[in-house]
Amino acid sequence: MKLGAHPKLDALCGEFLIGTLRGAARRRFERALAREPAVSRRLQYWEQLIAVEYSEKFLAKPSAATWQRIKRDLALHRFAAPWYAKVWLWRIWAAAATAALVLVLGLPYVNRPAPVGYSTLALMQGKAPEAQVTVELSDDRRALRLLAARPVQAAPSQSFELWLIPPGGAPKSLAVIGTLDSQIELRGALAQPLARGSKLAVSVEPAGGSPTGGPTGPVIVIGDVLS
Question: Domains in the chain, ordered, with CATH?
Answer without folding.
Answer: 3-50 (no CATH), 118-224 (2.60.40)
